[in-house]
Structure formats: C-alpha cells, structure tokens
Design a protein that fits this description.
Blueprint lengths: L3 H14 L4 H15 L3 H30 L5 E3 L4 E3 L2 H15 L5 E4 L1 H4 L11 E4 H15 L12 H13 L9 H9 L10 E2 L3 E2 L8 E2 L2 H9 L4 H4 L2 H7 E2 L23 H11 L4
Parallel strand pairs: 5-8
Antiparallel strand pairs: 1-2, 3-4, 6-7
Helix pairs in contact: 1-2, 1-3, 3-6, 7-8, 7-12, 9-12
Length: 283
Amino acid sequence: MKTVQTIFAETVVQFCAVRAIPSSHKITLERLCKQSGLVPDEFYKGVLSMLYDVQEHVENELRQRYFQEHAYPVKWDDEFDEPLVDPDELLNRARDFQKWLNSEDATCLVTLQDLLDDIDISVAPIGRISFPQISMDIERFKNLVYPNEYFHVKDWSEAQLAALCDALIRAGFIAADTKTENFVWVFSGGPRADDWERVKWIKRSSPKGLKEKQYNKKSLLELLRLLGVSEGELRNRKLICVLFSNPDGSPLNYTPSNYQDLEKHSVCYGKLEEIVLAVKPSS
C-alpha cells in the first residue's frame, strides 16, 4: 500500500511533467486526488508542501554549487581569527547569486528519494529543473487549486515577505499586531488559515502644506507597484478590500478618485522604496 508521502511525490512528478499541456493540469490533479482517497484540502496542502520542499532543495543545491564555482576574495581578521568580509561585498555576492539562480541555465537533478523520507523507490525523479521552473510550477498549482484572492508578486520568497512585514510594522505602515503568516499569504496565496485576518494599513502622513496627519491610502498602492503587482490587480478594488483593512479592522475601500495622479509620488514613497530595496535588492 502506498504511503501518503509517495502519493504526494507521484503527484508532484506528474504535475511538473505536464507544463506544456495547461488544459490537463486541473483534470490530472482531480484524478490523482480521487485516487489518493484523501479529502481535497488535505491532498492539495500535502502536494503544495512538497513542491515547496523541492523549491528549497533546488535553491540550496544551486547555492552550494554557485559558491563552490565562484571564488570571492576573503580577508582574514587575525585578532578574531575569522574571515573579514565587507558588508557591501556580501551584498554584491547575494545579488550575483540571485541573478544566476533566476536564470534557466542554473539547474540541478531532483530525485525525491534523496529529498524526503518514506518515499517509494518506484517514484520517478523530477529530472533536471531550474529555480524559475519550480517557482512557476508552484504558482501554477496555487492558481489551479486555490481562489485567485491574493496579489501575485514575482521572485519574492516567503522569507523576504516576512522580512518586509517586519520592516513595514517598524515603519508604521501596518499594524503592530499583524501576523507574519497573514501578510505573507496576501502575496503568496495557497491554503489560508482559518483565523486569517486582513492586514491593517495604518499609515498616516502630513501632505505638503498641512500640519495635521491624514490617512494615507495612496501609499498602499505605491507599495503594490514597488512589489511588482500587475496594473490589473493594482486597480482591483475588490481584491484590496478582501486583503487589507482600515486601522479599525473595517474593509479598506478604494474609489476611482484614489487612483488619480498615481504617477505623482506621495510623501511616503521614498521610505517605501528604501524598505523594499533593503529587503530585496534590485538585481
């Protein structure tokens, strides 16, 4: 009898193998879910979790390979007997690696037996895969299985989104009681926790010429643009209402007038840009 892990593994292999046949994706998933004997929610959560495991494995394997093949100058601190690396040099290395990681040329062989325990040896390997490919597979899976109720951002990891959440809290853009997992879900989707709550946008600022601070709704639109959200999603007022709330917890409603003069930056734009670039430096 197949283990649950084996069922998930077989689904991941088949799902990653049918990229070129979009019409068969949903049918394939529904058939495999039925064959598994699991309820859909449990089945899809397990498959998505394994896809994330594969993504993490690919990133770690490629990171190890990259820094084995790319030598960087290292100075030695004699006093503390440890390598001394300039912060700017570390930033440059991270940028170089991210640029290489997101190229289709950087691939590694993925065999699920080497990655996870309790997998039947009959499960075929996924084969050689790149980081962009597995990331695309994850997005494709989420778009098929879960409602399209989140903002799609490209090349942002969950760790980076968590760091962004923390930075926005410290800068006073979102409420201090914001749960990191709630914020991350807004930009990554997938199964939503039963206790999920809208993210409270609380930023207040003083427009030029005024002393009194006013609620700054425009700054949220500017953040979404900085994160790479599509123009269609940016102007989806219903989606914003679903995902964000006012400071008092009521849905954050936008009107057409809120989208006027978007090209003219608010007083908050510079700080938002600084936060975004600090969390995810531009390559």
